[in-house]
Q: What sequence folds into this?
């Protein structure tokens, strides 16, 4: 057990616990997935689970219905649900409690599904290797400009619901350009959780970068 | 100036300032609009402004691009932007500052567009008469079940992007039933900010209830 400094601020406490989480994850590839409610985070993870099976563990932090965990575990992936108590973002302590409850043996990739929110989650390190922002076509193409704090920190951006291209107005080249202005090295994945398009490239990134 | 209690908690302070805002709004009809990023709050307000013109004032609290305010004011409605500094919800103090900056003479309806977020804003009284939740078809039909804290407090729910009915899976009868379980008196408006469908009924509600 690490020593706990007496006058630790909440931010220092989170940074310390995130560092502890990072050790516990033991070199596995860990992603902090952040997106609006309805952007399709759980549906993307369901598709991801179908390809990764037992190599995937999901820490579910979105305000959830009980049905959601089953969508992940039916493919042999592991899932643990965080009781957020209505919080607007996850913190490292919540993730530390989740790690206690999940068997990571055989797991290569861990995805933490954050609370559906583009503002609050972006400021909290959970012990992940990379943040992944999820947006979707019907939300509109100005999200990177409106929420720069998230998009400058996101190593990858998933643009979901590409099956709605041509039905809703969305300039994906603008989104890519705006993302690159905020993070020159960002990886952008165009996917449809509905049809499965683009999911293989995303899963390849999860496994190998 | 009201007396400020010395040992006021943040929650007490917000309640006191919300009560002060309510007085300053002087009997105008005031709505606190809460929805996810991309649910179409600003587009609905643009349609609303086209019908209400100078009778409408909008207090914009969403993390905004400068373009958004112009979409409101071109119809003669008034708009003032709140600098949220990246906050995840508005509080009554931010709204008090906005009221100082806006001329409410001739205004009948005030809509406060909250930060795009379904969690944090629902717990803060801004001095409104009613909270309005905005959801949209592509977000999925489980939002009332997932975010009961908002939907039990919302006097009205706008279901936006009805132009996508039949293109995305969405059971609107389920949504209405779930909303009514949380608030038996809720008013539900089915609109498309894109086509204008349903906007008249919504504006009628704003004006007369």
A:
């Amino acid at each position: 057990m690490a020593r706990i400094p007496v006058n630790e601020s909440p931010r220092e406490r989170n940074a310390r616990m995130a560092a502890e989480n990072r050790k516990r994850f033991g070199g596995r590839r860990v992603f902090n997935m952040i997106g609006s409610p309805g952007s399709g985070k759980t549906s993307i993870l369901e598709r991801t689970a179908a390809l990764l099976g037992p190599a995937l563990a999901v820490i579910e932090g979105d305000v959830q219905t009980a049905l959601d965990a089953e969508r992940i575990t039916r493919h042999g992936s592991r899932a643990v649900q965080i009781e957020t108590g209505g919080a607007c973002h996850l913190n490292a302590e919540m993730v530390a409690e989740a790690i206690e409850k999940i068997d990571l043996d055989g797991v290569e990739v861990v995805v933490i599904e954050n609370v559906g929110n583009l503002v609050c989650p972006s400021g909290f390190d959970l012990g992940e290797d990379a943040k992944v922002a999820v947006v979707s076509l019907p939300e509109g193409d100005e999200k990177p400009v409106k929420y720069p704090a998230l998009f400058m920190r996101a190593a990858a951006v998933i643009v979901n619901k590409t099956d709605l291209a041509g039905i809703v107005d969305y300039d994906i080249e603008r989104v890519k350009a705006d993302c690159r202005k905020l993070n020159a090295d960002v990886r952008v994945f165009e996917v449809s959780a509905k049809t499965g398009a683009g999911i293989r490239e995303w899963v390849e990134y999860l496994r190998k970068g």
Notes: The interface with chain B takes residues 36-39, 62-65, 86-89, 115-120, 135-140, 142-143, 145-147, 149, 161, 164, 167-168 of chain A (CB under 8 Å).
